[in-house]
Amino acid sequence: MSRQVVRSSKFRHVFGQPFKADQCYEDVRVSQTTWDSGFCAVNPKFVALICEASGGGAFLVLPLGKTGRVDKNVPMVCGHTAPVLDIAWCPHNDNVIASGSEDCTVMVWEIPDGGLMLPLREPVVTLEGHTKRVGIVAWHPTAQNVLLSAGCDNVILVWDVGTGEAMLTLGPDVHPDTIYSVDWSRDGALICTSCRDKRVRIIEPRKGTVVAEKDRPHEGTRPVHAVFVSEGKILTTGFSRMSERQVALWDTKHLEEPLSLQELDTSSGVLLPFFDPDTNIVYLCGKGDSSIRYFEITSEAPFLHFLSMFSSKESQRGMGYMPKRGLEVNKCEIARFYKLHERRCEPIAMTVPRKSDLFQEDLYPPTAGPDPALTAEEWFGGRDAGPLLISLKDGYVPPKSRELRVNRGLDTGRRKATPEASGTPSSDTVSRLEEEMRKLQATVQELQKRLERLEETVQAK
């Protein structure tokens, strides 16, 4: 009688643990828009989530520590004139966030430390170039101030945020139909896209060339999502011809057949993949699901190993994923998700059970830090570089806040960022404030004179 050998892995017993009620964000009105993005973005300072807003598009930004019930009058980022569809924090500046909207614009915002005290209506820069709604925004992983946006006009634009210019354009000749997902490679040299024409493409964006493509990675008609994973592989999620959800792993050099293809269930929600390059674990979160599945990717067959599944009672409207430098390493936390309910945002910690409280070097190899490896000019000029790695052994210490520098001297024909948005008042604003100050001083002097006359009258009586 043969005994089945269980595969050895330090991640076999990873488990999900929801935070306590007082560590959640209560009474937030999550967006009702039907769009397959996470609706939530997180970094070590802030959590941002797309909310319902009357008369335009808005999203909420809260400091991580500001848990509990959220005031209904809390100030929001509300500069868009139509619903916001996607948001993304800059990986090199924890105070900068980009948003794409149905109003066809991409806006870049700077959030002050401590969060918003007043509604934020003026972005640092507005990027205008799409002719239909913008559903995807993604920052370059290693180059500073490089932002990608994809719209329902079937166009991908790569922006230099410092100048407000669209430096690269991948037009409808590359993607003839709606773009479902875009993902940067780890060094930012390539992008991986999935499209409604049932093709997954690997593209060199600076040359505008398709390096490789796969027709119908999944036979079904529902949306496919694709992400880069380790060692030149990509992972796709989609549907079979019988509408069963699938996950597949592909070698980018041999896309004829998948390295692994697994059928999961018959739910209808699109699976959003989140890949952790430090542990080679991919997490699958479906909109409308009440579970998070996670798999480990290895270099030997069968390549994709199911680890476990975190389940809860309530379904998720969206999901945010914390970068590794925002985790609690002394608790062996290897991932943290921010699950959006209808009126609540609930953090969920993914933990490896260990008895020791000491730093576990095997769980936390050097990870991507907050410093960019390249400038925008170097990357657009053809250079590539992997992320600058940092150790989490002594905990992550966030750097001092950096100002987002925008060159306002270049007239790009687009709406320029207003100086007030970056914290530097214009000369017109200074003159207006000085005039108001003079009026206030004159009013104070008049009141002082009236008070003196009143005192004289009282003394005379």
Automatic annotation (TrEMBL):
Polar residues: compositionally biased ranges: 421-430
Domain of life, source organism: Eukaryota
Domain DUF1899: 4-68
Region (Disordered): 404-432
Key word Ubl conjugation present: yes
CDD domains for the chain: bZIP
WD repeats: 77-119, 127-169
GO CC list: cell cortex; cytoskeleton; phagocytic vesicle membrane
Keyword Coiled coil (UniProt): yes
GO BP terms in the entry: actin filament organization; cell migration
GO MF, any single term: actin filament binding
Annotated Basic and acidic residues bias: 404-418
Keywords annotated in UniProt: Acetylation, Actin-binding, Coiled coil, Cytoplasm, Cytoplasmic vesicle, Cytoskeleton, Membrane, Phosphoprotein, Repeat, Ubl conjugation, WD repeat
Signal peptide span: none
Subcellular locations according to the entry: Cytoplasm, Cell cortex; Cytoplasm, Cytoskeleton; Cytoplasmic vesicle, Phagosome membrane
Quaternary state and interactors: Binds actin.
Family: Belongs to the WD repeat coronin family.
Annotated protein name in UniProt: Coronin
Gene that encodes it: CORO1A
